[in-house]
């Protein structure tokens, strides 16, 4: 699974399209990055750009964009309604997939250090990357805006986290940049069956973290209650890290609760939806659906779908597409307009970055491609696919068992097994294309020039690296297929007895995957010069094939006994 970071830099130019185009072109030119959105504002004279990529590619694209903006934007000539203090005013990094906030902070620090050193632009770190508590808030760092920089820079308390602490000719043009790491923010609206903004606000106040002012008698018109310091007291809302307000949308003819979910790890989207439903019901209204503004990480939709399936006591060990469909229908995300997961989910928009040509084929096309004169896909890819089919059968048994009449109290156990099966299936499917990619990498290495001694050395090293990868991939297939026996064996033992033969076929497939992948390991190992590695990997492979044989015999014994 690839690590993904979203970057949302804000540039102090929203009127000159040629400048905006050059900045975005510098982002798109970086391999491994996909530009998702460009949102210029004339009144603010500011453009917000959104792109996603693997960490190293993302910070490279951010660096190139900051460099380009510093060359093309002169802050001495800038004016606009939005607070700003730099050509690249702010550049947050947001963990999207398979990466922690701590790792993202490290990338933010790395980017700031490079910008300060190579571009001579002072950089401050904010939010999770802040070097001190008072710098967590962007507004604090940006106090006084660009015009305050001559007085601020040079003072010890305003020393940047990267770059020189001085106001010079370079800084006069570029200003300073604030780089940070923060959680993903979701703009989310919930639809009500009312046109009343006042009633919508009453729900918003129930939901949002800061709640509402505390009044005598708990009445809306009661006198505001102050604390000992004379500050107004508040009744907190149900959801932390949520901002919200009610408004009327003339286009739709309804009132909505407009929310910003600022930390989806604290309050995920489905919980905000559920709490809104509870509040609306208490106040005599109904939630009719909801609306997602912008894009979300895949995890947000999967977490929501699993939540609603669990509420029904249904297995969550089903395909991602079905889980997402449950989430969309449960929250009415398609009430106002169609909800297309391919456009609204970040990972799905990155399809071109994670191309899976074999998995995109239908069954007939895959078989035809395998049968063609091309050497790939070959035995490694087929072994991975056979393994995926095997554990898919066991996962089917788990899901059937979760819904078997009379087994209602066991649904959660089988749901857990189905979830494990889905994980193994997805890993094996990913290896279908990875094995073909590994073979193609060897072919590419062999085509490298070999005229000079230096070229020969480089070519030889590339062939060895590619060969090592071509061994590692089928070895992964062996390991995952072998591990998948835990689901297959469990379903043969405790699953729906009417599906016992499906568990048996799954075991046959898993054994075939282990043995088939080992053939690829062995043939590729013959070309690797690292004798110690080859000896180790072959010994492990032999042991794994024997273990697969034993597990297959055990499962088939259960099958024969129960038939």
Question: What would the keywords be for this entry?
Answer:
single chain; 563 residues; Four Helix Bundle (Hemerythrin (Met), subunit A); 13 strands
Could you describe the 3D structure shown?
- The strands form three sheets. Strands 1, 2, 3, 4, 5, 6 and 7 form a seven-stranded mixed β-sheet that branches. Strands 11-12-8-13 form a four-stranded antiparallel β-sheet.
- α16 packs antiparallel against α18.
- The longest helix has 36 residues, at 411-446.
- It folds into three domains: 4-181, Formiminotransferase, N-terminal subdomain (Formiminotransferase-cyclodeaminase, Chain B, domain 1, 2-Layer Sandwich); 186-349, Formiminotransferase, C-terminal subdomain (Alpha-Beta Plaits); 363-562, Four Helix Bundle (Hemerythrin (Met), subunit A) (Up-down Bundle), CATH 1.20.120.
- The chain is an alpha+beta fold.
- The protein has 19 helices and 13 strands.
- Helix content is 51%, strand content 14%.
CATH-defined architecture of the largest domain: Up-down Bundle
- Regions with little confidence, pLDDT below 50 for 5+ residues: none
Q: Main beta sheet, described?
A: 7 strands, mixed
**Cα-to-Cα separation, first versus last residue:** 40 Å
> What is the domain total for the residues?
3
Name of the CATH first level of the largest domain: Mainly Alpha
The helix fraction, in percent, is: 40-55%
Integer-rounded radius of gyration: 29 Å
CATH superfamily of the largest domain: Formiminotetrahydrofolate cyclodeaminase monomer, up-and-down helical bundle
CATH fold name of the largest domain, please?
Answer: Four Helix Bundle (Hemerythrin (Met), subunit A)
Strand content: 5-15%
Structural class of the secondary structure composition? Answer: alpha+beta
């Amino acid at each position: 699974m690839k690590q993904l970071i979203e970057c949302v830099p804000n540039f102090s130019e929203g009127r000159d399209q040629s400048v905006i185009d050059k900045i975005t072109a510098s982002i798109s030119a970086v391999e491994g990055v996909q530009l998702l959105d460009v949102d210029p504002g004339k009144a603010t004279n500011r453009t917000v750009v959104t792109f996603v990529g693997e960490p190293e590619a993302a910070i490279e694209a951010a660096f190139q964009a900051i460099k380009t903006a510093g060359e093309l934007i002169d802050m001495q000539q800038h004016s606009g309604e939005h607070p700003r203090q730099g050509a690249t005013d702010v550049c947050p990094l947001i963990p999207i997939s398979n990466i922690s906030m701590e790792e993202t902070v490290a990338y933010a620090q790395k980017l700031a250090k490079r910008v300060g050193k190579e571009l001579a632009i002072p950089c401050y770190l904010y939010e999770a990357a802040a070097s001190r508590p008072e710098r967590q808030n962007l507004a604090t760092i940006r106090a006084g805006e660009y015009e305050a920089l001559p007085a601020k820079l040079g003072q010890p308390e305003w020393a940047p986290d990267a770059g020189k602490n001085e106001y010079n000719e370079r800084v006069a043009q570029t200003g300073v940049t604030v780089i940070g790491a923060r959680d993903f923010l979701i703009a989310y609206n919930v639809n009500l069956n009312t046109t009343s903004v006042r009633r919508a606000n009453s729900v918003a106040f129930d939901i949002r973290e800061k709640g509402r002012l505390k009044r005598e008698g708990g009445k809306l018109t009661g006198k505001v209650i102050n604390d000992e310091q004379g500050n107004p007291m508040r009744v907190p809302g149900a959801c932390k890290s949520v901002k919200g307000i009610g408004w009327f949308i003339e286009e739709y003819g309804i009132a909505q609760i407009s929310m910003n979910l600022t930390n989806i790890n604290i309050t995920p989207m489905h919980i905000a939806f559920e709490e809104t439903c509870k509040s609306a019901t208490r106040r005599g209204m109904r939630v009719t659906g909801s609306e997602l503004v912008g894009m979300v990480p895949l995890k947000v939709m999967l977490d929501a779908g699993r939540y609603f399936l669990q509420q029904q006591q249904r297995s969550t060990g089903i395909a991602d597409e079905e889980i997402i469909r449950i989430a969309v229908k449960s929250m009415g995300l398609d009430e106002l307009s169609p909800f297309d997961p391919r456009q609204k989910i970040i990972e799905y928009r990155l399809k071109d970055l994670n191309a899976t040509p074999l998995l995109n084929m239908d069954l007939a096309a895959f078989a035809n491609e395998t049968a063609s004169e091309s050497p790939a896909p070959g035995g490694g890819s087929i072994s991975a696919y056979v393994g995926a089919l095997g554990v898919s059968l066991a996962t089917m048994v788990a899901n059937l068992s979760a819904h078997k009449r009379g087994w209602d109290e066991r649904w959660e156990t089988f749901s857990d097994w189905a979830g494990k099966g889905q994980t193994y299936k997805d890993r094996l499917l990913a290896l279908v294309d990875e094995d073909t990619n590994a073979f193609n990498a060897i072919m590419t290495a062999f085509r490298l020039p070999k005229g000079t001694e230096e070229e020969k050395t480089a070519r030889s090293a590339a062939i060895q690296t590619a060969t090592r990868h071509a061994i590692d991939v089928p070895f992964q297939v062996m390991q995952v297929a072998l591990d998948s026996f835990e689901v297959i064996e469990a379903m043969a033992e405790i699953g729906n007895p009417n599906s016992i033969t499906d568990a048996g076929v799954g075991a046959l497939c898993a054994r075939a995957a282990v043995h088939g992948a080992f053939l690829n390991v062995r043939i590729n190992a013959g070309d690797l010069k690292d004798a110690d590695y080859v000896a180790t990997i072959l010994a492990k492979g032999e042991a794994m094939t024997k273990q697969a044989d034993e597990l297959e015999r055990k499962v088939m014994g259960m099958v024969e006994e129960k038939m």
